[in-house]
Amino acid sequence: MVALLWTLALLDAAVLAYFLIRSLVNGRGPVRWLRENVILIIAVLSFEYLLLPNIVVVLFSFNQPNGRFNYTWTRFSLHAWQHPCDAAGMCSSLGLSLKIGLVATLAATVLGTLIAFALGRHRFRGRASTNLLIFMPMATPEVVMGSSLLTLFLSLKIPLGTTAILIAHVMFCLSFVVVTVKARIASMDPRLEQAAADLYATETQAFLRVTLPLVAPGIAAGALLAFSLSFDDYIITNFNATTGSITFPMYIWGAAQRGTPVQINVIGTLMFVIAVLAVLVGQTLGRRRRV
Amino acid sequence: MTDASTEQVRSEPVSGRAAAGKATAAHGGGDLQMRSLTKRFGTFTAVDDLDLVIPQGSFFALLGPSGCGKTTTLRMVAGLEEPTAGTISIGAEDITATRPYKRPVNTVFQSYALFPHLDIFENVAFGLRRRGSKNIKQQVNEALELVELAQMGRRKPGQLSGGQQQRVALARAIVNRPSVLLLDEPLGALDLKLRRQMQIELKRIQTEVGLTFVHVTHDQEEAMTMADTIAVMNQGRIEQMGGPTDLYENPTTTFVANFLGQSNLVRAKVTSRGSDVLEVEAEGQAFTLPARRSFSDSDEIWFGVRPEKLSIGQGDAAEGLRGVITDTSFIGVSTQYLVRLPWGQEITAVRQNDGAPILRPGEQVTLTWDPRHAFALDASQDAHAGEDFGEGELLGSKG
Ligand SMILES: Nc1ncnc2c1ncn2[C@@H]1O[C@H](COP(=O)(O)OP(=O)(O)OP(=O)(O)O)[C@@H](O)[C@H]1O
Ligand SMILES: [Mg+2]
Predict the structure, then answer these.
(1) Of B222, B129, B124, which Cα lies nearest the Cα of B164?
(2) What are the residue boundaries of the structural domains of chain A, listed by start?
(3) A245, A161 Cβ separation under 8 angstroms
(4) For A8-58, what is each residue's pLDDT tens digit?
(5) CATH numbers and ranges of domains, chain B
(6) How far is the CA of B175 from the centre of ligand 1 (A)?
(7) A90-290 domain in CATH 2.60.40.1940?
(8) Does residue A189 belong to the interface with chain B, where contact is any CB pair within 8 Å?
């Protein structure tokens, strides 16, 4: 691990030295070059700091450790990539997390979008207090919310496990979707819908052809946020889970006590790559429909 | 509002209807009628008990200062604003409660309101697609050609200039050939050349297709040159309505007299009322005016003459008003003079630049005019009403 940091530092130093020498050769002076590029240097260093954990994750997915713990670099191997489900119980926990994440995202996005439209487009009694209440789940500490939900489920005799976890996830994802979509709706000119109505579009047509496409980026952002929140959640999930409903974060946490299989890093790397791809695709689409 | 102007509101549409006769046959629509139309926002009355009949196929201009309720009126006709009271109908059909998408009405929005996620072609095609028209491609391309944007079909609204966006908004409405087209300052963002060009195009489309145009504008000249009928609106009410010439030559209120072009108003008293001629007295001098050009029942009046109706003579004369030139503005086609009268009031006179030497400030002059061009307004009104809004543009560019 220390070796990795040294490698990185040496690499930085080499790149810096190359530019300084080049500025000397060009006769423009290294001090001047430093002054002109100081922001760039700081940015590169910050990015390295930011991405270091990801680099470690990716690197150690190619490791073949001697013991059960994947904490020291031993030798390069593709074994974990070729047998991702070799770690007992990992793939089923991943499957459960993905399932819960998708269902919770779907439910929270649909409900949250509807709430956002109600709050953003209509004046009704209790609108201000609804606005406030929507923020509550975001402000409540997770431990408190997890234990409260446990109490609620037990007293209502709702069985713990997958269903209880789903209900909990939909609840805390909802607020984030509402806030994201509402911001998008607020930035949209209501006259566009009026123009659609003026051009013979019924309410449904105006919604589908004008409102929805314009609000869609907000809905997509809300859905992505909801999925990553749900997929990532440990505390609330742990309160309401049973031995039959081990999610991916719970699996890793449990595994860390007994040994960390390399396969965890494989999944971590995949998640990272998928997230980067999602952002790239989103930006390309955004540029294409730039207004 | 005086009796005279109410009378005009009723009588004007009748004369317009005959001209629009052929269009009535071609289209299913009919006259656009507003009865006691009122819109209040809280306690503020934006449109106040409006009675208006706009004959089918006519080019109707709504002229008035900012905030007088023009846009609100159009929005009620389009169905985007619910009237507080009153009714709107097209022909025999009452559309007051009709949903906006069911009205045979299209709007060119003051703010364009183009769909940012659709390209120009799809923006223009939007209304046609909703109604399942045929030949959409051809119709859209024709409309885009009309506004000179044929090459821009695949661009997004955000990639166009303000004037180009305005023309897209125009094409998007016109392509549907509605019975009534509402235009809310549709040429406001265009430069003078393009504006004149679009005015001609608009007028051509209107006469060719026989659509009813309700055109809101700040530009007096635009209203005068294009419209069959102009209504001057002020604080939610129609101040006066009529043909361009009629409105300009026979203003019935000080607001209209000042808002459309300029007017010189002198305080006077009626001394005798004949059946044809009214004799009045102002600052000790006697004047006359045609009795039908008096719009006041009271004997206290504003005696009015338009600046271009005054002729400027040099030296003393037996008749007319004597004064001293205090300011000379050379406009090109004409020269505008400010003349101070013996009692201190300054009035405006405009003279064509027909070769006569330009007079300098300080020179003594005598102003005379044909008594048939004088008019009388009720003195209970503010002599300066509507002055701040009028641009004086009409006199400036037309001379
Ligand atoms: N939704 C609203 N709520 C409250 N007041 C409004 C609303 N819409 C318009 N008004 C008011 O009604 C009056 C008339 O507005 P309107 O938009 O019809 O003016 P306008 O004649 O079109 O002016 P402009 O020439 O500046 O476009 C204004 O004083 C405006 O402030
Ligand atoms: Mg307006």
Answers:
(1) B124
(2) 2-60, 90-290
(3) yes
(4) 889 989 998 998 888 888 877 788 888 888 999 999 999 989 988 888 889
(5) 3-242 (3.40.50.300), 262-381 (2.40.50.140)
(6) 28
(7) no
(8) yes
